[in-house]
Hints:
Blueprint: H1 2-16, H2 39-66, H3 78-100, H4 106-134, H5 138-167, H6 170-183, H7 186-205
Amino acid sequence: IFGAIYLHLVTIPLLYGPEPLHGLFSYEWKGGLTGLAYLGAGLGIVIGTFICTKYLNRSYTWLAERNPRQSNKPESRMLFLQIGMLIVPFGLIIFAWTAEKQQHWALPLLGAAIFASGIFMAFLCVQTYLVDVYGEYSASALAAMIAARSIGSCMFSVVGFQLYVSLGYGCRGTMVVAFVCLAALPVPMFVYKSGPRLRSNRRQML
Length: 206
């Protein structure tokens, strides 16, 4: 999740920088305005936060009520995670197509906002799922996740620049990330179905 965010952040100085770099198209925002392009993803995070605040626990309760066997099970978080993961590639496709076709500058930012809202929804679902699963040990689980995502984000930040320089914004660049997200879509449903069994096996091994 965080790898996709950092890959996106790499594109901002390339797409909205004051001059084209490495043969890539730029909207050439000058006078320090490039940083304003981060407001697209920032707005998406605000929207994702609002949606999670209003509906994350509601979806958990609704799913638990519909399936009594899943009542109070952490896997009931997976429905909301699935929704977030569906939103992410949609936003990436908008960003990739509009940037590649050099459309109005607001359209890539719209795609970035949609992408960031989905990413943040998925991120919060993963956080709450780990807290539900590990209970009193959740701080250790979250710390391990922070360490893993920090390493991954560092790697994607280094690789991401060369990715876009070599492949561009469109079908060969951002769309690669979108296809990876699409390939990961079955993961929440797999966890929803198999999570209790996997957690039970872990307890028996301990």
